[in-house]
Amino acid sequence: MRLTAKIAAGLAIVLPLSASAGELTIATVNNGHMIEMQKLTGHFEKANPGIAVKWVTLEEGILRQRVTTDISTKGGQFDIMTIGMYEAPIWGARGWLEPLDFAAQYDVDDILPAMRGGLSHDGKLYAAPFYGESSMIMYRKDLLDAAGMQMPDNPTWGHVADAAAAMTDKEQGVYGICLRGKPGWGDNVAFLTTMANSFGARWFDEKWRPQLDSAAWHHAVSFYVDLMSRYGPPGSSGNSFNEILALMNEGKCGMWIDATIAASFVTDPKQSKVAGMIAFAQSPVAVTSRGANWLWAWALAVPAGTQQSADAKKFIEWATSKSYIELVASVNGWAAVPTGTRSSTYANANFTAAAKFAEAELKAILSADPSNSTQDPTPYTGVQFAAIPEFQAIGIAVGQQMSAALTGKVTVAQALANSQTAADREMRKAGYY
After folding, report:
1. Distance, C-alpha 231 to centroid of its chain
2. Which alpha helices (H) appear in 133-272, and where do they start and end?
3. What is the rounded average pLDDT of the residues 371-395?
4. Architecture category of domain 135-293+376-429 in CATH
């Protein structure tokens, strides 16, 4: 049985659908750029008669679970999957994904090296980036100006806390800082890992022993919980990207540290009430700048075994091409194109003129180094994750503990002790020591 989705009232309703030749079923995340890709799919179908595209659109955490289960069990529900830099090299090495090889005009060398490298294994590209991102600060310059403060390009976490205090006005429904709190290895754990990196923390020592009970992790998580308790919005433990984007666009957040891709949404007057007031800075640091901002790409991949392999690759080539970016620009303007993937986008004067965030975004992406993301040496690569198969289970368990600490159900010390135990159990079970 195949699956598809109908979008109604912003929800993905999953329905059974019989498989048929020439029909592509695509699993994707419910982020703005993916929703726009669905709207533009008619252009692909018109150019490729006989290929129909069906969508399964899911919230980020559910998408990760669904595609992981499907590909590991050879469920065969999807012809194209939206995955990221964590899954692509691991699944490619296991033979779960088909390598991607496109025509010369696709210009694979135009893809930013960090993105191409993070989606490859042994020199083979296993997923093509639809958009790429790092993380950075997006803040209300008008509120900081009113408070008599400025935001340096490379602020400390202490300065960020001072700025959050200055911008908070709870009586007016304005909170100084909005950060991810929703549990998940790609949600609160992604953000907290970059924060902890900057405090000098690491996931594992050189012998693969978890370090979650270290002083650096305790300092970082304590700072986060205190910051959010004082200056964050209520219900932060349930907030992920889309929830905070809505708050930011309503003018309820003084600062948001998250994916650079959000910049195109928060500066869009059609979406944001404070579009003209947003400015940007690089992610904050505590004791080191290493690993302070993440590196990620939402990318399209073909699971091995699909009977629609050729058509699936044809769609991916279309959706991640230069011409697709130009299509989006022609429909929605250059400030709305998916970014973080191609050098040619940042070399385009039309884009840099329309997107005031372009320079800050590219600087963040280029500064992220998955091979050198912590103050002390580690055996793993990755900035906001450790690129090992066991990390997904560990990250999910840790995310639940961090969410519990944020709500006050457990202390930070208890949350980290529980996280250490969970991580140690997974690593022992996997035979790391």
Report:
1. 24
2. 141-146, 157-167, 188-198, 215-231, 241-249, 263-266
3. 97
4. 3-Layer(aba) Sandwich (3.40)
Backbone angles phi, psi at 267, to 5 degrees: -105, 5
For domain 2-133+295-354, which architecture applies?
A: 3-Layer(aba) Sandwich (3.40)
Answer yes or no: are the C-beta atoms of 237 and 399 closer than 8 Å.
no
Amino acid letter, 70: D
- In tens, the pLDDT along 183-238 reads 999 999 999 999 999 999 999 999 999 999 999 999 999 999 999 999 999 999 99
Structural domain boundaries in the chain: 2-133+295-354, 135-293+376-429
Do the domains 135-293+376-429 and 2-133+295-354 match in fold?
yes
The arithmetic mean of pLDDT across residues 334-358, rounded, is 97
Q: Is the pLDDT of residue 10 over 50?
A: no
Q: Does the pLDDT at position 5 exceed 70?
A: no
Yes or no: say if 166 and 155 are a contact pair by the CB < 8 Å rule. Answer: no
| CA dist., res. 381 & res. 373, Å (int) | 8
The span from the CA of 24 to the CA of 36, in Å, is: 18
